[in-house]
Amino acid sequence: MSASSWIDMSLPDGGARSIRLDGEVWRIGRSKEAAIYLPWSQISREHARLFRRGAQVWLQDNHSRNGVFLNGKRLDEEPVLLSDGDVIVLAGVIEMTFHDPGETLMGPAAGRLQGIWIDPQSEDVWVDGQRVVPPLSVHQMRLLRALYRQPDRPLSFEEIKKVVWPEENPEGVSKQALDGLIKRLRQRLRAASPHNASVQVVRGYGLKLVQDKRGG
To answer: Burial of 81 by CB count in 10 Å (0-12 exposed, 13-18 middle, 19+ buried)?
Structure first.
């Protein structure tokens, strides 16, 4: 990562700020001495910190009361490496998005540029070369993974129920729950790539994943 990285912030009062990350350490909190001063009562005096190790930027929760969340997951006190596009939420009131265009050029590439790709190591989901952030929910991921394993093969609604809700009797999974899951998954994929239509409904039967043959 380079010194060109920055964060965009959405504030509780409706305002927004952008802060370029030049330097080595940025303390975040309600203390007026903090490099990133956030005067809201939900924010701890020393809530979190960003710091640079070599070319990389890391995030650490500094024993905050109301927590630091990265891409929907609450952090413990261990530092985590930030990647371009990561979304940070402080105490449920402030959202930050981390940007590092240099990483986009140097970072690991998606396994295919058209269609869906699931990184076998990290299980990050990529749509038409764009990473899905924040990650999919557990149920969304189960459904997508089942379709991904057998592209172009329709998966029946009954099979989907068994895969997504293995602990439930399939007869007890309502049509509303199934329809809602499918709708939310397709919305998340289209949020990453608006014209993507990889997950297709097979009327009266189920779903299938259609991959663009040019994608690899």
So the answer is: exposed
Check whether residue 93 and residue 131 sit in a common domain.
no
- Written as six digits, the tokens of 132 are 């899905």
Note the pTM of the prediction, 2 decimals. 0.51
Which of 126, 87, 113 is CA-nearest to residue 214?
113
Give the pLDDT confidence of 96-124 residue by residue, as tens digits: 999 987 654 444 455 667 789 888 878 88
Token pair, residue 90, equals: 């402080």
CA distances from 145 to 18, 155, 209 (A): 36, 12, 10
Q: Where are the alpha helices (DSSP H) in 20-137?
A: 101-106
Order of all β-strands in the sheet with 25-29: 36-37, 25-29, 48-53, 56-61, 80-81
Check whether residue 123 and residue 203 sit in a common domain. Answer: yes
Kindly state the tokens that stand for 40.
């809201």
More confident residue, 184 or 214: 184
